[in-house]
Write a sequence for this structure.
């Protein structure tokens, strides 16, 4: 008899259950978790993007420095080349001044 009353009470509770509320509560929790995970993923992607942007800036600065060093090196080489040509021409007896 006791079991029957427990079963009856359980049946009554099941019949009184508002499944729309249960479904809504479940979906609310589910979508809250989806949003939380999405926010977390967006945060990680944003951090990765920030790191990549800083690295890009660093690489651009390095590239610009190397280009400037290369231009400076080219000017030095041109000056040396001119000096060598001037010495070579002088050694061959060719006048190198433009006042002639």
């Amino acid at each position: 008899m006791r079991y029957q009353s427990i079963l009856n009470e359980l049946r009554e509770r099941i019949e009184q259950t508002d499944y729309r509320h249960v479904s809504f509560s479940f979906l609310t929790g589910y979508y809250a978790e989806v949003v939380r995970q999405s926010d977390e993923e967006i945060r990680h992607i944003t951090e990765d993007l920030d790191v990549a942007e800083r690295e890009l800036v660093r690489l651009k600065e390095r590239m610009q420095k190397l280009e400037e060093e290369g231009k400076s090196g080219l000017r030095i080489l041109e000056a040396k080349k001119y000096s060598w040509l001037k010495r070579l021409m002088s050694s061959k007896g060719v006048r190198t001044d433009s006042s002639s």
Summary: Residues 19 and 25 are 10 Å apart (CA to CA). The chain is about 90% helix and 0% strand. The mean pLDDT is 85.
